[in-house]
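Purine nucleoside phosphorylase: structure tokens wanted.
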Amino acid sequence: MINKIKETADYLIQKGFETPEIGIVLGTGLGKLINEIEIIHEVEYSNIPHFPEATVEFHKGKLVYGNFGGKKVVVMQGRFHLYEGYNLQEITYPIRVLEKLGIKTLLMSNAAGAVNLNFKKGELMLIDDHINLQGGSPLAFKGVEQLGERFVDMYQPYNVEINKKLEVIASKNNLNLHKGVYASVIGPQLETRAEYRMIKILGADAVGMSTVPEIIVANQLKLKAVAITVLTDECDPDNLKPINIPEIIELAGKAEPNMITLFKELITEL
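Answer:
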């Protein structure tokens, strides 16, 4: 894998992806941040050596390099998931490439369902901690110690200092930013009523199908990582309604400007 990571990074450097400071991963329905970036270079995932390809219709599948908030950033417009048939090493491969390019900070976003019924759809949640319900680890493979520590400490997987900055920015802009625990499941099916009850009992405030593998690898690579969830539906097992995917994408789009504000002001401060 080391040789593949180097080959991918070398290709991107040749394409002009030079010394980005910050990596950004955009989740489901969260692509408008690209419009705020002064784009210098962009490459389709399908053209990047050893890179997976996005198969979800609302994930663009493009790597973008440019200026944002006064910093050089590299943005993943679309991520990868277990439910697409990729394994945990493939899902997290791009994070290793971004670190090889030089990023020190990783900002992530996702769309998820609110299990905490005090949280409402269309609101944002700052992830303070997570529960891995994906049945595996992106570090559980032979030779992982060549890429970093095998036994990665996860006592503070989300950078406390940056999270505090985001809370201050949210308060200053009168944005309602919850803080909570994110549970990550495999998907792609949505949860049953019983599963929502279980996830709530476990202590999660929101549930989705991504982010946790990337955060684990980010911690192995000593990156400062944070993640913001856009809550796109309310998961009340006693009043569960049929899922409405178009509404979820629409809600993600409506909440995205607030997330962009948080990320942009944060980046100017980093």
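The chain has one domain: 2-269. The two ends are 31 Å apart (CA to CA).

Cheers.
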